[in-house]
Amino acid sequence: MAITAQRFTALDVFRGMTVCFMIIVNTPGNGATTFSPLLHAKWHGFTPTDLVFPSFLFAVGNALSFVMNRYRTMPTSQVWTKILKRVIIIFMLGFLMYWFPFVHWEEGRLVGNELGSTRIFGVLQRIALCFGIAALLVYYLDGRRALMVSIVGLLVYWALLLLFGEPGAQLTLHGNAVLKLDNWLVGAKHLYMGEGVPFDPEGLLSTLPAVANVTAGFAAGHFLQKQGKNYEALAKLLLTGCTLLLAAYLWNLTFPINKKLWTSSFVVLTVAIDCIILALLVYVIDLRGKTTWTYFFEVFGRNPLFIYLLSEVLSILLYFFRTGDESYYAAIFKSVFLPLGGYVGSFLFAIIFMLICWIVGYLLDKRKIYIRV
C-alpha cells in the first residue's frame, strides 16, 4: 500500500504535549517544593516526568517519517549534507546553551564561564545525535530493519554496562560504564553536576539505546501513514504498546528501568507508553474528530525546538539577573507564588512560565513563522 500524504493532527498534538510538559517539569518555581510526579526518579524507577524526554525523541522519529520520502528522491550527498547540517546545528545550540550567558557572578563581579568546564553532552546534543543516527539507519535500511538494528543496540548496551562497569556496581551512579566512558572521553569538568558528582544522564554511551526511541517513533509514524485513520490501525498500535509494556516490566526484573542510565528496559517502557498515548490521540482526534482542544498543543508542536530553547534561555536569564542577593527567578517565586503555598506556588510558576512560552509560539504561528534547523 502506498503511504498517504495526509498529515495526522494526532502526531502534531503528541509533539506539542511533549514540549509543553517538558517546559513545566524543567521550570518549577522551587525544586524543593515540587509535586513528586514532576520530579525524575532518583535512580532506578519511573515517574511521569521520566517520560518527557524519550517522548520528544519518539516525536522526532514521527517527524522523520514524513520527510524520509523526500530524502529518498535526493542525491545521497545532499541527504548527508541535510542530516549532518541539522545534527551540527542542534548539537552546537545545546553546547552554547550550557555555556550561555558566557559569564557568571562571583563575589559581586562578573567572571567569564570557562570553555574548559562547559558541559558537552545534554538534551539538545542527544536529540542531534539520535536524529542523525536514526535518519541514516532509516535512509540506508527500511524502517523495519532500522528498528531491528536499534533492538540489537538495546541488547548490546545491556552487555556493555555489565562488561565494562565496576564489578558488582555496574548499575550504580559511581560504577557505571556510561560515566567511565565520559570521564575518559571528555573529563569530569565537562559533565553534568546535578547528581552532586560528575555524571551525565545524556552521556555518549547511553545515546546508543536512545536511538531506539527515534526509530520506534519513525516506525509508528510510518505505520499510521501507511494504514490510515482506522480502527484496525488503532488496535494494532494499542496491542503493540501493551505488549511492550509487559516486556519492559519483565526486563526490569534483571535490567532495572532507569532514566539516568537510559537502560534498555526504560526504552521499551517509554516506547510502550508513547504508542498507547498516540493511539488514544488518534482515536480522539482523528477518528472521533474531537479537535476543539488541540490548537493549544499544536502551537508547541509547530516550533518545538525553538520553543524549548526559548524556555531554557529565558530560565537561564532569570537566574542570571539579580535583585539584591537573589536571582529574579527566586525573587519572583518568593514574592508572587510562594504566598499561594510552596507546592501549589511552585506548580503555578511552572504553568505561567509555560504559558509565556506558548504566547511566543502563538504569535509565531499567527505570522506563519516556523523556525526549522
UniProtKB/TrEMBL annotation:
InterPro entries named among the record's database cross-references: DUF5009
Transmembrane region(s): 12-31, 51-71, 83-100, 120-140, 147-165, 203-221, 233-251, 263-285, 305-322, 342-364
This protein's record includes keyword Nucleotide-binding: no
Superkingdom field: Bacteria
GO terms assigned for molecular function: alpha-N-acetylglucosaminidase activity
E.C. number(s) listed in UniProt: 3.2.1.50
Keyword field contains Mitochondrion: no
Every DUF5009 domain range: 42-175
Alphabetized UniProt keyword annotations: Glycosidase, Hydrolase, Membrane, Transmembrane, Transmembrane helix
First-level EC class: hydrolase
Name of one Pfam family that matches: DUF5009
Record-given protein name: Alpha-N-acetylglucosaminidase
Organism per entry: Adhaeribacter pallidiroseus
